[in-house]
Amino acid sequence: MTIFAASSRKSLSSKLKNDTFIKSATILIVADIVVKVLGMLFKIPLANIIGEVGMGYFQTAYDLYLPFYSVAISGLPVLLSRLVAKSVSLRNESEMKASFCCCRTLFTAFGVIMTCLVLSCSLFISFFGGSPEAKTAIFVIAPCVLFSSLMGIFRGYFEGLNNMVPTAVSQIIEALGKAFFGVIGAAVLKSFGFSVGIQAAGACGGVLLGTVFGFLYLYIKLKIYGNPVNDGCKNNSLPDGYVKKIICLALPIIIGSLITQISGLVDVLTVQRGISEMIESDPEGILSVYPGLLDGLSGRGTEDIPAYLYGCFRGFATPIYALVPNLTAVIGVGLVPVVTGFWETGEREKLNVTLHSVIKFTSVVVLPAAAGIFALGPQILELIYSSKPFGAQIASQQLRILSLCAVFAGFSVPFTAVLQAVGKERIPVINMFIGVALKLILNVFLVRNTFFNVNGAAIGTTVCYLYIFVADLVGIVKVAGFVPDVINEFLKPAISAAVTGGAGYLCYKSLCNVFSSKLSTVIAILIAVLVYAVFVFCFKIILPKEIIKRSDRNG
Questions:
Q1: CB distance 489 to 356 below 8 Å
Q2: Which of 15, 243, 277, 324 is the most buried (most CB within 10 A)?
Q3: What pTM was computed for the model?
């Protein structure tokens, strides 16, 4: 029985239009919240187990693997999701089969090639200032790219059918495996007296097991669900020129996804090397900037300062800021099939309604989160990394800078998804390339400067996403003829977020006189959330249930 025949009572194209964007986004956001909680349960105890230097080794391996993981888990599924959604909208079953078959081969080949590339990067890590002790962690984490690519096949297929549940469940399984086995692995290796580098490799082993379990779930799910498309791969040959067509569509998305996460790779290649050069030219300078640095190293030599500072930046500050764009990334995933459907069928009015909803929904998520990170960033770091107070103190400087970046990065992810969904993949690729080039330039010149040191990398990231945000928004306006409502979609949420951040900070300062710093931070965050909810209600900023109603009226 074919997919289209199986849905004879209610066609898939009808389902696609009736299942609103907000429903898909809600499923993925709930899953993403669970994933982020599990991620904190991984990163927080891991940092307290292996320390700042160990996190420097772990992040070196993780940042090398992350761009390729991003393509496999975010970029490639978008390609298949878009192709499947288009086939469903046009009720073209043969094209859906051809898309699945071709993408399955493409994704698998990508996984194998990129796994080999990550492995080869370990040979050159010392050249870029990274520690040789990070090599083992790189070897362990490299196969994750292959299993992530295989997961992308199944996720893209289900997402194209507007079924976000398999993606959500696989994300949770992956995060659960990473958190449990990663922390246990690092702790066990530490208890047996292995080096910090081996402990970091144990944490990477948890990441690998998580991706394996996520893949196994999706593979079994598709077997149970029934996959007539897979059967079509065995029975039908691909149309002439179809492989070339898919590759042409895939290349901009692959490059775009790589560049989206390549800022981390730029940091791997420039930050530790820049800090090493700074120490060589001015050995006492960095110690005057961070007077307690030698105590923070806990007896380790000055040769570990680059890994220590890198661990503070990428291991402590970046994961907190990255919660914001990671959360809005799921909005982009749920957005692709909806926008593609409206674009392909020429329903421009419904497309504009969806875009207005996306910007408002993103503003409601991004702006208060960024304000809270800026106002209470140092207190949040102190709360989370209580056993590493000096590392948390250093990371608080970068986190304050990255709180501004969270706004631009948070918007740029769904903006990129919109441009990809309407077939303008090259626009975000060009914008991202220019943004990353700006970051590279700033990293090279600022990080080696004693005054800026590792904070220069945070500045470079912020400038990178500022450019991407502006350029992507201009691209959407030109392509879709869409004009955002500045007052309701930007200004009102921004004012509410600013008041929220201020309220949280004042609340913390007041409570510190009565309660402990940690308890004061928790209460201040809760009060800030309540204040924001009040302002959202007073300003009548759109809520998720209002988006559903609007979508229903236009569906």
A1: yes
A2: 324
A3: 0.74
